[in-house]
TrEMBL record:
Disordered: annotated span: 11-30
Organism: Paenibacillus terreus
Pfam short name (any one): ABC_membrane
InterPro entries: AAA+_ATPase, ABC1_TM_dom, ABC1_TM_sf, ABC_transporter-like_ATP-bd, ABC_transporter-like_CS, P-loop_NTPase, Type_1_exporter
Boundaries of every ABC transmembrane type-1 domain copy: 54-336
SMART domains cross-referenced by the UniProt entry: AAA
Transmembrane annotation, as ranges: 53-78, 90-110, 169-187, 193-212, 289-314
Name of the featured protein: ABC transporter ATP-binding protein
Stretches assigned to the ABC transporter domain: 370-602
């Protein structure tokens, strides 16, 4: 029972937090840049549950105190037995000991569940804040970073913080307390025996340092290679069609095998070397046990200490090496959690979509007049993607954007929807500078039908309703009818309730386009942005799409990135872009007469 009592309590770690191979919680310590700042911000989250946290701390204090009291009472009980034999007082001692054990278990259990509650609430908030913040970040942020990398902050890094808060944080705190308490009680009982017990500490520290210095870089290397392997898996799975189309399966499997093997090797050495830690600790523990027993025995024979004190020291010697071991184990976990929290805060510190601070106006109505006045823009510091663009689109007009690849057609649309702000010049809608209008309000008057229509996992009905969330079922169906999507939807097994998988696999390219048109129809915008599909669609569907689009564009100012000659033909105005400059503008006939760049493109 004594052993069970003094056995260090291990907080259960969620399976996902266990690093395969990082035995004993020894994970690579990614370096945190600003310790105190990060801890303060984590504290800010934790402080939401101050009362619970205070209870946890109280329980940690109590359990640490009880952990010290147990062995002490055992020693005293033994001395008492040696002196007075089996009597009433001795029975009371045993009963007291049982109460101490029970209270210890209770306090540990309470601190554990309360801390889990606080930790889960903390990471729930952090996750929510991060996700909401990601949705307020400007588009360039997503261009600069890999999707997988952002995802890993939302999942791995937050999980790292979560598991550390769940377990390591209080384990470290209670280890420090137990260690301090043990040393104080040991010193008060026998300073000589305390010093003798401590002779193994420098050996432990040196041994641990020697081992962790070698395993740290190995675990880190293993994590790095694992990260690279994840990237490789993600890439090959999402590019599966290309892998198969070019018969690259064997090469891909070969490369995977090489990468996999390098992880195996790094993991093998990291674990083999770190496997010495428990052996070393055990050996040194036994040594300190022998020292206490041997020298304690001599001291007892001389009468300077009692047998009970030797028993207490034996237990304490065991007890103080454990917190040391725990501290060493948890340290790396703590460091990597701080680094994880830092990565989360790094994203939280990213500026939200710029420019909305001064944009307080909202648009109740929009006629749809769009003006570009000397608009220039560049993605990079230097260079110009668009230069001095000036044109006016009157309400209800269809504007076709044409030009060779890389001319700046998409960029012009990005500026119009305020995904980016112009470097110079001004864009107005109904005469108002669009930088003064809140983005949300501005975009509520716009709808997009893009080449790569994104359909979410959900039913067809839900996907169309994305255009206007409060639309009724009837409105959804009316929009689908106007978009020419109704007939194909009705032919599907579950009609409007057919479930689509992410990306809309299961329906054809043309059908996706029809759904996108229905979605835009439902949004009923004043301004429409169309990116005409370049992929060939069968003639029947093509006609349906065209009909749907014609109905959609009626009465709205439409910008079409046009690829088909008949779309361009029908446009009220054509903007001809080349190398970021607006070379020509006018109707098809006007531009042909001009016999410039457009005429040469048509020819
Ligand atoms: N996020 C970005 N960061 C840096 N440069 C970019 C970015 N997006 C586009 N560019 C560059 O800006 C220029 C204009 O690109 P844009 O996509 O507007 O051309 P486009 O006319 O739409 O071409 P396409 O018809 O091929 O789609 C190109 O030179 C392109 O390389």
């Amino acid at each position: 029972m004594l052993k069970a009592f003094t056995e260090p309590f291990r907080y259960p770690r969620p399976a996902s937090a266990q690093q395969p191979g990082a035995r004993g919680g020894r994970k690579p310590a990614a370096k945190a840049k600003n310790w105190s700042g990060t801890l303060q911000r984590v504290w800010h989250y934790l402080a939401r549950r101050k009362f619970k946290l205070a209870l946890v701390l109280l329980m940690v204090l109590l359990s640490s105190g009880l952990a010290l009291l147990g062995p002490y009472l055992v020693g005293v009980a033994i001395d008492h037995y040696l002196e007075g034999g089996l009597n009433r007082t001795w029975i009371w001692f045993l009963a007291g000991l049982a109460v101490v054990y029970a209270l210890y278990s209770l306090t540990v259990w309470l601190q554990n569940i309360w801390m889990i509650e606080v930790a889960q609430e903390t990471v729930y908030r952090m996750r929510l804040d991060l996700f909401a913040h990601l949705h307020r970040l400007p588009i360039p942020f997503f261009g600069k970073r890999q999707q997988g990398e952002i995802m890993s902050r939302l999942t791995n890094d937050i999980e790292n913080v979560s598991s550390t808060l769940n377990s390591s944080a209080i384990q470290i705190f209670s280890s420090v307390l137990t260690l301090a308490g043990t040393v104080i009680v040991m010193l008060s009982l026998s300073p000589v025996l305390t010093l003798l017990t401590f002779t193994v500490v420098p050996l432990m520290a040196l041994g641990m340092r020697w081992i962790t210095r070698r395993t740290g870089p190995l675990f880190k290397e293993r994590q790095r290679r694992l990260g690279e392997l994840n990237g490789f898996i993600e890439e090959t799975l999402s590019g599966q069609r290309i892998v198969k189309a070019f018969s690259q399966e064997q090469r891909v499997i070969g490369e995977f095998s090489t990468r996999n093997d390098s992880i195996r090797l790094a993991g093998f050495w990291a674990q083999t070397i770190s496997g010495f830690i428990p052996k070393l600790m055990n050996g040194l523990n036994n040594l300190s046990f022998a020292i206490v027993a041997g020298f304690g025995g001599i001291l007892a024979i001389r009468g300077s200490i009692t047998v009970g004190v030797i028993i207490i020291f034996v237990e304490y010697a065991r007890q103080f090496t454990r917190p040391l071991n725990d501290l060493a184990n948890q340290w790396n976990t703590l460091l990597s959690a701080i680094a994880g929290a830092e990565r989360v805060f790094e994203v939280l510190d990213e500026n939200e979509e710029a420019g909305d601070e001064g944009a307080s106006a909202s648009l109740d109505r929009l006629e749809g007049e769009v003006c570009f006045r000397n608009v220039s823009f560049s993605y990079e510091e230097d260079g110009n993607t668009l230069t001095e663009i000036t044109f006016t689109a009157h309400p209800g007009e269809t504007i076709a954007l044409v030009g060779p690849t890389g001319a700046g057609k998409t960029t012009l649309i990005q500026l119009l929807s305020r995904f980016y702000n112009p470097s110079s010049g001004i864009i107005t809608m109904d005469g108002r500078d669009i930088t003064t209008i809140r983005r949300e309000s501005l975009r509520s008057h716009m709808a997009f039908v893009l080449q790569d229509t994104f359909l979410f996992a959900g039913t067809i009905r839900e996907n169309i309703r994305y255009g206007r969330l409060n639309a009724t079922d009837e409105e959804v169906e009316t929009a689908a009818k106007l978009a020419n999507a109704h007939s194909f939807i009705m032919r599907l097994p579950d009609g409007y309730d057919k479930k689509l998988e992410t990306g809309g696999s299961g329906i054809s390219q043309g059908q996706k386009q029809l759904l996108a048109i229905a979605r835009a129809m439902l949004a009923d915008p004043a301004i429409l942005i169309l990116d005409e599909a370049t992929s060939s669609i069968d003639t029947v569907t093509e006609v349906k799409i065209q009909e749907g689009l014609n109905r959609l564009m009626k009465g709205r100012t439409s910008f079409v990135i046009a690829h088909r000659l008949n779309t361009i033909h029908r446009a009220d105005r054509i903007l001809v872009l080349k190398d970021g400059r607006l070379l020509e503008q006018g109707s098809h006939e006007e531009l042909l007469t001009k016999d410039g760049f457009y005429a040469s493109l048509v020819k």
